From TrEMBL, chain A:
<feature type="domain" description="FAD-binding PCMH-type">
    <location>
        <begin position="184"/>
        <end position="357"/>
    </location>
</feature>
<dbReference type="InterPro" id="IPR002346">
    <property type="entry name" value="Mopterin_DH_FAD-bd"/>
</dbReference>
<keyword id="KW-0274">FAD</keyword>
<dbReference type="InterPro" id="IPR002888">
    <property type="entry name" value="2Fe-2S-bd"/>
</dbReference>
<dbReference type="GO" id="GO:0005506">
    <property type="term" value="F:iron ion binding"/>
</dbReference>
<dbReference type="InterPro" id="IPR036010">
    <property type="entry name" value="2Fe-2S_ferredoxin-like_sf"/>
</dbReference>
<dbReference type="GO" id="GO:0071949">
    <property type="term" value="F:FAD binding"/>
</dbReference>
<keyword id="KW-0560">Oxidoreductase</keyword>
<dbReference type="InterPro" id="IPR016169">
    <property type="entry name" value="FAD-bd_PCMH_sub2"/>
</dbReference>
UniProtKB/TrEMBL annotation, chain B:
<dbReference type="Pfam" id="PF20256">
    <property type="entry name" value="MoCoBD_2"/>
</dbReference>
<keyword id="KW-0500">Molybdenum</keyword>
<dbReference type="InterPro" id="IPR008274">
    <property type="entry name" value="AldOxase/xan_DH_MoCoBD1"/>
</dbReference>
<dbReference type="GO" id="GO:0030151">
    <property type="term" value="F:molybdenum ion binding"/>
</dbReference>
<keyword id="KW-0479">Metal-binding</keyword>
<dbReference type="InterPro" id="IPR037165">
    <property type="entry name" value="AldOxase/xan_DH_Mopterin-bd_sf"/>
</dbReference>
<dbReference type="GO" id="GO:0051537">
    <property type="term" value="F:2 iron, 2 sulfur cluster binding"/>
</dbReference>
<keyword id="KW-0560">Oxidoreductase</keyword>
<dbReference type="GO" id="GO:0005506">
    <property type="term" value="F:iron ion binding"/>
</dbReference>
Length: 478, 812
């Protein structure tokens, strides 16, 4: 039995197929059609809902999610708010009122999703007692995953800047209601929801071929776009032990259930270049569900985080029916969408290595569109500049340049131990073409990949050398 | 006596003619506004899915669907052989079979349909088809098609003096020409001549609500089609033809669309027809919704164009002649390509007097999806060559591109277009002067030039580009509209008209018109779904004409009723009819004021008819395609935009930093809605020219079949500094609806300023001496390619972004 609250009202459903999406259940059996399907792939945001979880201080935190690719079984015990749940009779929620006041809907089809993204932003800001309007960065981060084809976004942005001025009515209907059910419950057929690591390993033993799912932001597309059966599925999202971020001397171990959104505060303190990259990975909705481990285990050649972790020299902790082991990330990717994970094994935690004194991390992604786009080219570089100006312990990795995310070892050799001067750069740029033979595909041509990756090396050259502060070297610096 | 209904309380605050919110705004933000897929269907409603062609061009040698029929939940499988009427859903010319018959002509073409109890079951059954194809040679390059004589429609010419007579209208003709003089001679004698070539990419509509229709039987052998269509009358007609029944048995209904943009003008009909056919065969309600990937493969897009241009000009940059050749990639069938390429030709001048000019339009056939209407309808693609030429001329002469543009604008002297229409209200000169000042163009130009001279990596670009857009359907007969207005005994008003609501605020504007004519608060007036059984024979809601046409028709109906009410009241009150008026929810008779509700009740009791129709046909327009001359447009709408971009020359990535727009809507019907159209159109145009890239493989398969690979602008792509103003104080010179102007399409082309600004930034790499070629969409990849080409052609004196040639840097 699947149980959660929908707009404050407890509801239960039985015989829910394992791959069922939240959107299918909402629009179908729950009869709540305010939430729209625009793409069924988590790319347009028309299906955005808010999922509420209790936080440490007893309040409820809402995060936005794409209902179209959220497995509905993961809603077990959660408080779900949809666009139908915000207004009270004729009284609109401040977000809704601001949208009306600013003429922020035209065809209206994307509007419910936009309202829900703004609801999450507004709720969080009120909860944290933030005064005044959100700034442009916050608005873009909240709305980057919501496509609108009509308005050109300006009135939506204005609504985002005005919503705080409207009286905070009862902000969410289920605030008062208690949790309807434990977040974990008995499995549904084909959808296993272990609550402990031991339980997980037991399920893996029983179903060694089962697919693991955490955020599901890529896996679910096989079902929504191609109707592939996915079961049996083993869900990692309800295991508290996998939700940890553990610090040790070498860095931090990021549990397999930790979403990107939860990782952001740590990165802001320790790896700002990684955080900047993350801001261009997927959308708010995706980052609220997707995990670092998932990005690695998925082993896409165009995953955004593997090049960074390769450049950082991260280690990985694997666990499973044959016990735990550690692996250098260099040994993890074994081929196109293939990894060192054995049947019955899962990626338990990813190490985020601490940057040593003097160490620099640079990481950039190139894509057709700034937000919510898959990279054409990724380049990450970690090095120390020693007191004689030489680059030491250089690690460079690229994405989108080969069948797997891959180190650029010839580039590294050209840089290692050398002062980063123009001649060094020229040799490193030339070495890129020896390291990689990228392909033409829908996102970029071979030539662009090589030229743009070389451009990123030049950018690194500018970043690691001093230049007059008045001259911007990146768009962010303008 | 039956008791009359009492009126509800009305709390009017919104004055007609002002920024009333969208009539569905509250429905949108609460999720209560329903789209077709949200409607509760009958319990036994069935769902359709379609099998698409995997080949661009092939003969079907075997079509075995038995295994499909055996799949769980499948109720029916439909092929071309099952069509009782004609297998044709072409909008203007034949060529678009509902289901492929014998041959497939593009990858993604609908071949068969599966009807099942659920959408998933229908979709799951599709791959079980056993279909053999014998592949045929596929034409995939429009330029090669023109060379080989492969066209969907004949050639056409605009030329002055009149061209060689009576162009052959036969099917072997490949192009159209419009000319305004002796272009070859003008070019031969011009002090300067430049030539260029450009490839302009197409565009996916990406309406957020995908194509959908629902059909259900009525109890009298008729069918009702709920359709997400800009053209319900065409859906009605094509459904009737496919089923082989008369039009009066079919009702097509549109409450709202989740976006249209032209993509639901002709393309929605196939869904309606297939749903209707399935409903007729099964006797059950049928819903047909295309999943996004199917939608993107099966339905048409904006035409890609391949353009060539030669311009002659004097030392000041003023044009003396132009020869412009436009090749539109129409896809496999004509669809609306006749009008699309015509409109491209009509807009080859954009806002400039071309001098002696010849414009030739070609309609290339390729084995790809048939391209269709998309906001601007060819106009945007047609403007691109002359805007490219303006920049090219400026680089050639060492002038600011704005000065070259200003020297060539239409004015009161040079005001005849290359197709012979006089531009009677050339506002563009004044509009640009105003915008140039308000955007601080000159100072910013100076600052940007200085910045670029010392910036090795980041380059800034600035451009001001104008828009002139002709308003009217170029197919004259479409410039008509009807409305039906009813006043009920409680005084509430219901208006129905032929236009459809796709988000553009048409219904809101029409309600405002009726409220204004009847002196009522907006809350008294309501609009119902567009239905072909209420207002027949409607035109598509397209060509920016929705409010111009339907608003006028509604106004006519309102005036009829107003006059009828005043005539009745004159007799009732014993006063002259001329002394009466309707205002502030009342009849005003000198000092006397009779409330609207009382007036209506009295009129009803006196048996005054309280409903009326209205009709409008645009006057004065005509166009002779045999000569390529006439007055196809009732008037022109004007606008201009200044865009500033920042380009990273190492990677090709860029940002649009600031945009200033001044746009002409005549006297605005609703400034909030009009501004929304201007901003939304601009951003959609920016997407077309920048990030929205359609890609096909070598066999003609579309690769960009969803938002993961096809990137429309997001919130963060829109300039944070976005200053939009409507031009005030210039009512339309023509007698349009309250002297307003259409606003749906014209703003899209304001985005050409972004493209021109990108070229400006790139040109800085060669000290503005070279005009870079920049095909569209100008993705980071194309921008980087253009940057590299300029570096190679002429290394700049400015610092090199590529550190290889820079001075040895300081080590840290």
């Amino acid at each position: 039995m699947l149980t959660f609250t929908l707009n404050g009202r407890p509801c239960s459903f039985d015989a829910v197929a394992p791959e069922t999406t939240a959107l299918a259940l909402l629009r179908g059996r729950a009869g709540a059609c305010g939430t729209k399907e625009g793409c069924a792939s988590g790319d347009c945001g028309a299906c955005t809902i808010a999922i509420g979880t209790r936080n440490d201080r007893g309040g409820r935190h809402y995060h936005s999610a794409n209902a179209c690719i959220t497995p509905v079984h993961q809603l077990q015990g959660q408080a779900v708010v949809t666009v139908e749940g915000l207004a009270h009779g004729d009284g609109l929620h401040p977000v809704q009122q601001a949208m009306v006041d600013q003429h922020a809907s035209q065809c209206g089809f994307c509007t419910p999703g936009i309202v829900m993204s703004l609801f999450c932003l507004d709720h969080e800001r009120r909860r944290r007692g933030l005064a005044g309007p959100p700034d442009d960065d916050a608005i873009e981060a909240a709305l980057g995953g919501n496509l609108c084809r009509c308005t050109g976004y300006r009135p939506i942005r204005d609504a985002a800047k005005r919503m705080h001025t409207l009286p905070a009515a009862q902000l969410a209907p289920e605030e008062a209601s208690g949790d309807p059910a434990p977040e974990t419950a008995a499995d549904s057929a084909g959808f296993h929801r272990p609550a402990t690591r031991a339980d997980l390993i037991e399920r893996l033993r029983q179903h060694p071929q089962a697919r693991l799912i955490a955020g599901g932001t890529d896996l679910m597309l096989a079902h929504t776009l191609a109707l592939e059966p996915l079961a049996p599925l083993i869900d990692l999202s309800a295991i508290p032990e996998l939700q940890h971020i553990d610090e040790d001397e070498a860095g931090w171990w990021i549990g397999a259930g930790v979403t990107y959104s939860r990782l952001e505060p740590l990165l802001a303190d320790t790896h700002p270049a990684f955080l900047q990259l993350l801001e261009r990975l997927g959308s708010r909705q995706i980052r609220n569900r997707a995990t670092l481990s998932g990005n690695l285990a998925n082993a896409s050649p165009i995953g955004d985080t593997p090049p960074v972790l390769l450049a950082l020299g991260a280690r990985l902790r694997l666990n499973g029916i044959h016990g735990a082991r550690e692996l250098a990330i260099d040994d993890f990717f074994t081929g196109y969408r293939r990894t060192a994970l054995a049947p019955g094994e899962y990626l338990e935690a990813v190490q985020l290595p601490r940057l040593q004194a003097g160490q620099r991390l640079l990481a950039w992604k190139l894509s057709k569109r700034r937000e919510d786009d898959i990279s054409a080219v990724m380049l990450a570089l970690r090095t120390t500049v020693d007191d004689r100006g030489r680059l030491v312990n250089v690690r460079v990795a690229c994405g989108g340049m080969a069948a797997t995310p891959q180190r650029a070892r010839r580039v590294e050799r050209q840089l290692e131990g050398r002062v980063f001067e123009a001649s060094t750069l020229a040799r490193a740029r030339a070495a890129l073409a020896e390291d990689f033979a990228p392909i033409d595909d829908v996102r970029a041509s071979r030539e662009y990949r090589l030229n743009a990756a070389a451009g990123l090396l030049t950018r690194a050259f500018h970043q690691l050398n001093t230049h007059p502060a008045a001259i911007p070297m990146t768009l962010e610096e303008v | 006596m039956r008791k009359l209904i009492q009126p509800g309380t009305s709390a009017s605050t919104v004055a007609p003619g002002h920024a009333a919110p969208h009539d569905s705004a509250v429905g949108h933000v609460t999720g209560r506004a329903a789209y077709i897929d949200d409607l509760p269907g009958p319990a036994d409603m069935l769902q359709l899915a379609v099998g698409l062609s995997p080949h661009a061009h092939a003969r079907i040698t075997r079509l075995d669907l038995d295994e499909v029929r055996r799949q769980p939940g499948v109720v029916d499988v439909i092929t071309a052989a099952d069509i009782p009427g004609v297998n044709e859903v072409g909008a203007v010319y034949p060529g678009d079979p509902l289901l492929a018959e014998g041959k497939v002509r593009y990858a993604g073409q609908m071949v068969f349909a599966v009807l099942a109890d659920t959408l998933d079951n229908a979709r799951r059954a599709v791959p079980h088809a056993a279909i053999d194809y014998a592949p045929l040679d596929a034409a995939l390059d429009p330029v090669a098609s023109i060379a080989a004589g492969l066209t969907v429609l004949p050639e056409h010419v605009h030329e002055r003096p009149l061209p060689a007579p009576a162009l052959d209208r036969g099917a072997t003709m490949a192009s159209d020409t419009q000319t305004s003089g002796n272009a070859p001679a003008a070019l031969a004698h011009a002090p300067h001549v430049l030539a260029g070539e450009q490839v302009i990419g197409g565009q996916e509509h990406f309406y957020l609500e995908g194509q959908i229709a629902q059909a259900e039987a009525l109890d009298d052998d008729g069918l009702r089609i709920l359709t997400s269509s800009q053209h319900p009358s065409e859906v009605q007609k094509l459904v009737a033809e496919v089923l082989g029944v008369s039009l009066n048995t079919i009702v097509a209904e549109v409450r709202r669309m989740g976006g249209g943009f032209g993509g639901k003008e002709s393309q929605a009909a196939a869904l309606g027809a297939l749903a209707a056919l399935a409903a007729q065969r099964s006797g059950r309600a049928v819903r047909f919704r295309l999943p996004r990937a199917d939608d993107m493969q099966a339905t048409g897009k904006r035409h890609g164009f391949h353009n060539r241009y030669r311009v002659g000009f004097d030392d000041s940059g003023r044009l003396t002649g132009a020869d412009i050749e436009l090749i539109g990639n129409c896809g496999h069938s004509p669809d609306l390509s006749e009008g699309v390429v015509d409109r491209a030709m009509f807009h080859a001048d954009n806002a400039y007097y071309l001098g002696d000019a010849r414009v030739t339009g070609h309609r290339a056939m390729t084995h790809t999806v048939s391209n269709t209407a998309f906001r601007g309808f060819g106009g945007p693609q047609g403007m691109m060559p002359i805007e490219a030429a303006m920049d090219d001329i400026a680089r050639h002469l060492g002038l600011d591109p704005l000065d070259v543009r200003k020297r060539n604008l239409y004015d009161h002297e040079r005001c005849e277009t290359h197709y012979g229409q006089t531009v009677d209200q050339p506002l563009i000169g004044e509009l640009i002067e105003t915008l140039e000042a308000s955007s601080d163009y000159r100072a910013r130009r100076h600052a940007i030039t200085a910045f670029n001279a010392t910036s090795p990596v980041i380059r800034k670009g600035l451009a001001l580009t104008p828009v002139k857009f002709g308003i009217s359907f170029t197919a004259q007969h479409l410039n008509q509209a009807g409305a039906l207005l009813a006043i009920y005994t409680d005084g509430s008003v219901l208006i129905n008209h032929g236009g459809t609501e796709m988000g553009q605020g048409l219904h809101t504007k029409v309600c405002q018109v009726v409220a204004r004519e009847l002196g009522l608060p907006l809350e008294r007036v309501r609009i119902s779904a567009t239905r072909t059984d209420k207002v027949p024979n409607t035109s598509p809601t397209a060509a920016s004409s929705g409010a111009d046409l339907n608003g006028m028709a509604a106004r006519e109906a309102a005036i009829t009723l107003r006059e009828r009410l005043c005539e009745f009241a004159a007799g009732w009150l014993g006063v002259p009819g001329e002394s009466l008026s309707l205002a502030d929810e009342a009849l005003i008779a000198g000092e006397r004021r009779i409330g609207w509700h009382e007036l209506i009740q009295q009129a009803y009791m006196a048996r005054v008819p309280l409903s009326a129709t209205g009709f409008y046909a645009t006057p004065e327009i005509h166009y002779d395609r045999t000569t390529g001359r006439g007055r196809p447009f009732y008037y022109y709408a004007w606008g201009a935009a200044v865009s500033e971009v920042h380009v990273d020359t190492l990677t090709g990535e860029y940002r649009v930093a600031r945009v200033d727009i001044l746009h002409d809507v005549g006297d605005s019907l609703n400034p909030a809605i009009d501004r929304g159209q201007v901003e939304g159109g601009f951003v959609q145009g920016m997407g077309w020219l920048t990030s929205e890239e359609l890609k096909w493989d070598e066999a003609g398969h579309l690769l960009t079949t969803g938002p993961a690979t096809y990137k429309i602008p997001t919130c963060g792509d829109v300039p944070r500094d976005f200053r939009v103003q409507l031009l005030e104080g210039h009512p339309n010179s023509q007698a349009t609806l309250y002297r307003s102007k259409a606003v749906g399409e014209p703003p899209l082309m304001l985005a050409i300023s972004v493209w021109s600004a990108l070229r400006d930034a790139i040109a800085s790499l060669a000290d503005y001496r070279i005009s870079p070629r920049l095909d569209t969409p100008a993705t980071p990849e194309r921008v980087l390619t253009a940057c590299r080409a300029l570096h190679e052609a002429e290394p700049s004196t400015a610092p090199e972004p590529d550190g290889t040639t820079a001075d040895a840097p300081l080590a840290k």
